[in-house]
């Protein structure tokens, strides 16, 4: 009798092993949970969880994830409250439930405010552009987390005294065919509707990084230091830092077909502000190294060179630095910061 039972047990064990391998789980039934975003994360931000077996094979699609024992519908979880949470994964295999060792995450309040950039494609020759200029000034007064950049377009040489050198590349990349075109957060097709409400969804987003800026002028030389700080790991994001210099208090006659500014046409000696003068490290910036895209890490970019020749008065200038999630026109803005020349703007 004992010999018969032993013979029966052999094919059952072999069958069980085959089923486990087919489902991507090794014979030892090891299941491990982890997050590429790390264990230190923030509230109201989508955090990705994954699972792998003892062989290192990804089995995320085959498991259920639980947060403090509650089953989730997806492997992306957004935490509404701070605290410590236990994440586990479960797999039903041959009538058994395999449960991973808990993966603990510590959820904190984000340290950085979310800001929005509006790149206003404009021109001194543009009859409807004063309308957007006026409305941008209005919303900036209502919410200082809105950062405008005026990108002037010259139709021909000398058409606009403030024409940006690389404007044709930007208009082609972002399909700008009409003026004015206030583009929000470098997002293809996201043209601002000229209301504060139209920016609220972007302002309400939680971002996992922030920026700090400081600068000083030494004679004809300009030194700028931009820092990017991370609230969690972001290894799956291709992040680039772009640094603009904009200039205020520029003056030229402005064509005007609107009711704004008294309906005067042209508006003589009109003050042009937030005017893009140069992109110090290119239109799509420089890549942030993988080693710096981790919780509490800081990436630093330094510019130390002569004041760019495009600038009329460096004392009227501001630095606008922003991070995009890519290196071309498909990339959208993650977060942005602004600081006047000669000042220090800390993380906020």
Draw up the topology in text.
Elements (H helix, E strand, L loop, with lengths): L1 H21 L8 E4 L5 E3 L3 E3 L1 E4 L10 E4 L2 E2 L4 E3 L4 E11 L2 E4 L3 E6 L7 E7 L6 H14 L3 E7 L14 H7 L7 E4 L15 H4 L5 E10 L2 E10 L9 E8 L2 E5 L12 E6 L2 E5 L6 E2 L10 E9 L10 E8 L8 E8 L3 E2 L3
Parallel strand pairs: 2-10, 11-12
Antiparallel strand pairs: 1-4, 3-7, 5-6, 5-8, 8-9, 8-10, 11-13, 14-15, 14-24, 15-21, 16-19, 16-20, 16-22, 17-18, 22-23
Description:
Helices cover 13% and strands 39% of the residues. It has four helices and 24 strands. A hairpin with a 2-residue loop joins strand 8 (83-93) and strand 9 (96-99). The longest helix has 21 residues, at 2-22. It starts with a helix and ends with a strand. Mean pLDDT is 92; it is low at 1-22 and 24-28.
């Amino acid at each position: 009798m004992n010999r018969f039972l032993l013979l029966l047990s052999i094919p059952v064990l072999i069958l069980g092993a085959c089923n486990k391998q087919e489902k991507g789980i090794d014979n030892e039934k090891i299941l491990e949970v982890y997050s590429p975003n790390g264990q230190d994360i923030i509230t109201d931000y989508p955090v990705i969880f994954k699972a792998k077996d003892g062989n290192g094979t990804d089995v995320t699609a085959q498991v259920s994830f639980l947060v403090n024992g509650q089953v989730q519908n997806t492997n992306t979880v957004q935490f509404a409250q701070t605290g410590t949470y236990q994440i586990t994964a479960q797999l039903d295999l041959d009538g058994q439930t395999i449960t991973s060792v808990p993966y603990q995450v510590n959820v904190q309040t984000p340290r950085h405010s979310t800001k929005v950039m509006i790149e206003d494609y404009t021109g001194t020759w543009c009859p409807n552009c004063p309308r957007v200029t006026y409305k941008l000034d209005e919303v900036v007064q209502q919410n200082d987390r809105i950062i405008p950049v005026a990108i002037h377009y010259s139709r021909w040489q000398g058409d606009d005294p403030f024409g940006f050198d690389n404007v044709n590349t930007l208009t082609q990349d972002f399909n700008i065919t009409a003026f004015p075109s206030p583009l929000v957060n470098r997002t293809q097709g996201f043209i601002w509707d000229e209301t504060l409400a139209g920016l609220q969804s972007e302002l309400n987003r939680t971002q996992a990084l922030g920026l700090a800026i400081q600068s000083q002028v030494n004679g004809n030389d300009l030194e700028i230091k931009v820092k990017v700080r991370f609230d969690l790991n972001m290894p799956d994001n291709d992040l680039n830092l772009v640094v603009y210099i904009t200039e205020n208090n520029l003056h030229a006659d402005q064509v005007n077909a609107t009711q704004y500014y008294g309906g005067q046409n042209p508006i003589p000696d009109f003050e042009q502000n937030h005017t893009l003068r140069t992109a110090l490290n290119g239109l799509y910036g420089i890549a942030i190294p993988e080693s710096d895209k981790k919780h509490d890490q800081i990436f630093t970019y330094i510019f130390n060179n002569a004041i760019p020749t495009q600038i009329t008065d460096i004392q009227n200038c501001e630095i606008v630095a922003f991070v995009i999630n890519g290196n071309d026109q498909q990339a959208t803005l993650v977060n942005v910061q602004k600081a006047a020349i000669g000042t220090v703007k800390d993380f906020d």
